[in-house]
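Researcher: We're reviewing a set of sequences before deciding which ones to prioritize for further study. For each one, I'd like a predicted 3D structure that I can look through quickly. This is C2 domain-containing protein. If possible, include the structure in token form so it fits the rest of the review sheet.
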Amino acid sequence: MGKRKKINFHVEEAMDFLKQAAIDRPVYVLLVPLFAAVWAFERWVFALTNWVPLVFAVWATFQYGSHQRRLLAEDLDRKWKRAILESLPTTPLEYCEWLNKLLMEVWPHYIHPKISTRFSEIVERRVKHRKPKLVERFELEEFSLGSCPPIVGLQGMRWSMVGAQRIMHASFDWDTNDMSIMLLAKLAKPLYGTARIVINHLHIKGDLQLMPVLDGRAILLSFVSVPEVTLGVAFGSGANQLPGTELPGVSSWLVKLLTDTLIKTMVEPRRRCLPLATVQLGKKAVGGILYVTVAGASQISRNGVRGSPSRRQHSYTVNQVSQEELVKDLKTFVEVEVEDLSRRTEAKSGTSPRWDSTFNMVLHDNAGIVKFHLYESSPGNVKFDHLATCEIKIRYSDDGSTIFWAIGPDSGVIVARAECCGKAVEMNVPFEGVNSGELMVRLVLKEWQFADGSHTIGLRVGSQPSLHGMSNSLSKTGRKIYVTVVEAKDLAGKDRSGKSEPYVKLQYGKVTQRTRAVPQSLDPVWNQVFEFDEIAGGEYLKLKCFYEDTFGDEAIGSATVNLEGLTEGSVRDVPVPLEKASSGEVRLLIEAVKAREGSNNGSGNGWIELVLIEARDLVAADLRGTSDPYVKIQYGNEKRRTKVVYKTLHPKWNQTFEFLDDGSQLELQVKDHNAILASSSIGNCTVEYQRLPPNETSDKWIPLQGVKKGEIHVQITRRVPELHKAPSVDSSDSLSVKAHTISGQMKRLLIKLQSLAAEEDLEQLTSTLTDLQSLEDEQEGYMLQLETERMLLLKKINELGQELFQSSTALDRRASH
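Model: Here's the predicted structure for C2 domain-containing protein, in token form for your review sheet.
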């Protein structure tokens, strides 16, 4: 009975479950008879296990075929869209609010610092070399572009095809009100003082286009037309309490400067290059040496290029003249221009002239523009007719390569890339704005110079110029810069003989020095060394070459040399082409040396020994063709002089002078003695001793400056006594003996002076006075040396006393323990 009750209980529960399932899921009610029918069919008619796998296999086959057809359709759809994208000249506009949102997120901490650093360098360089007449100098004190990024593609972006070149078009609108660019202006005459100029608002609006080139290694950017430019400028007082009013013409000058820069660099068809380097070497290029070879030209004709106004006035007759007559007498040359540096080829005849002329050019930044001007050389005409122009732009890429690009046919683009320095790049560049003609050039970037002082090889961490204000613009770094003017080549002759007497003038900061003049030479050799105190802030070395003339020196050419990134211990060999000249190159050796410690306040541990031996080939200062030379020496505030050697151009002095070493500049001035009139200068020079090793003598001939010829023979020694050796008593005794000897000589000269004064012998009296002054200077030198040795001896005694005291203290401590 118990089992029967238990079974009945389970059946009732099962019935309750089925009833509830029928209420909740009515479809379950149908499944029960379906399963019963299937079970009966399986049991008494046909076994389902025999054909179910077959049905499943057929179904899977159909599903796989459908999936493959769907994948094939998607692939064909992608290919069709790509084909349409590549074949259609213009794609539909695509709105990209996401891009501007992304710019707003990454602008403050990534894009803004990079762009500000780059733009600040450009602005600092521009305002330094291009400024209004009322401003003597600009200094950049602060540079910030604000927190508002530009808006790109507000009305959408689209792609277009020009030939095989893809171009992306997008609108550009940059309106920022919280930027801060502060310039400190030092005003020129008649407005003295300083004033601050703050640019606090910038609005640039235009249509931008981007061209990916070199398989995506770079992008060329440009505006389709001249963009709208607006600047907000505020003026403030400077240190000299100049009223904070608007300076005349400064606002319009800044707007014009920015607009002109955009037009010349990134308004169609001119483009700016943005390299996309896969490898970042972290180098900052500050200059380069470029070899430009003008190989030839093709398809040049007078009716295809623009010529002189007179030729354009009669252009209607050109169509009536045959091509042979147009080019029969055509003779052309090309002028190559990089900034202020220009060189020209020889004139060649024909429509396809060959020049094959190579020029050495200099870049002063990590980018540059090489312009080629085509001129017609007409016999008998002083002025040449300008026919056409083309240009090639150059830029350093962060992976060490160099990118060259130019305007191609139909305002297209020609791009080339040199993976490393020394690799030649050949380009055929069409002349701009003409119907025919192209120029064939070959460019070789010889080397890039970096901010850390390294060249193309030997990569190290770079440095950037200071962006401090005017107070630090001429601050010294504590290093010395030694510039050796070695030689010059191919200088342009100025006189009728085709030769000149050239010399070089160097200016660094406010210091100006010059070489001697080399007579009758277009390839002069100087080998003169000049010393400058290094100035912070990327100050340029200015070089000017003159030829000397009786009626006024005439300029041959000039150049600027970037001294940024000089490293100690390495000499930079710089060939400097002369700007504003048809030819000429000056070779410089530049070295930076750390100043010796204590050089400003004196080493306190030695003296300078100068031996003036002789001179040769001096300038004749007297009418009789000779001179009465003597040397005036200046070392800091001390002044000495040698004796006078009469009636000679090759004097011999053999006199020794000593000065306490305080790091001052040692200057020599050779003068011609005159008993009645004032002494005239016949040359001067500076004796370098700062880099001499201690107690080693340098024997050298120094060319005299300010005169056409003349050299002086000196021996210079930087005496540094060895303190671990006791000073020699014999040395002090010998010095005292010499001092007493000189005193006796001075007494005898005084007696001689009395007798000469009684005899009224003016010439002998002057000579004796000169000898007396020389003896007095020599005695003063010996006394100075005695005082120096006395101080050294006292210092050594003091050190020995301290050592004895310390040793006795140590012994007492040991005894107590």
